[in-house]
Amino acid sequence: MDFATLFRQHREGQNLTQADISAITGIARPNIAAYEAGRREPKVSTAVKLLAAVNAEISVNSTVTWGWTQTPRPYAVPSRLWRLPLDHAFATISTSDHVWWSGPQRTFDLADRRQRQRAYELFLREGGPDDIKPIVDGALLIDVFETLVLPRPLRHAWQAVIRRHLDPSVPQSAA
Known about the structure:
By secondary structure, the chain is mainly α. It has two domains: 3-53, Orthogonal Bundle (434 Repressor (Amino-terminal Domain)), CATH 1.10.260; 66-174, no CATH class. The chain has helices spanning 3-13, 18-25, 29-37, 44-53, 86-89, 113-126, 129-132, 138-144, 152-166; strands at 66-68, 76-78, 92-94, 107-109. It has a two-stranded antiparallel ribbon with strand order 1-2. A two-stranded antiparallel ribbon has the order 3-4. Strand 1 (66-68) and strand 2 (76-78) form a beta hairpin. The longest helix has 15 residues, at 152-166. The mean pLDDT is 92.
């Protein structure tokens, strides 16, 4: 989504006019109109100020890169954990054939902690990055990680990612 659309949606959601935003931020209303119309792109500092006025913020995160364990059965391992929007983190999901290959497709209600545990076990064990990233939420994974039934190499690899997440001073090589 572009800045213009995002900002306009948040401004309208707060029932604020462009003039209101101008009064709050000190940014001229014609400039705000140009940002909303996509005719101009604000500097980062201006975007931060505009978004703060509508109770929103910019979040910058490093890209998640993926590697694989060097084990007879390779497992996908991310460079860092991530957060999902709540509607995704607690959605009802269905398995695909390459993740759940032993019978009819299975569904999991991620709002139910026990079903989320089973889904996380399955997707971490059988899935690749494209399967794991839309299903697994970093904070919810940390919450259930110790109770997951996982193969030792998979547990060890993801434990290192969790340790780095909880203590950023842990070097990447400690994985």
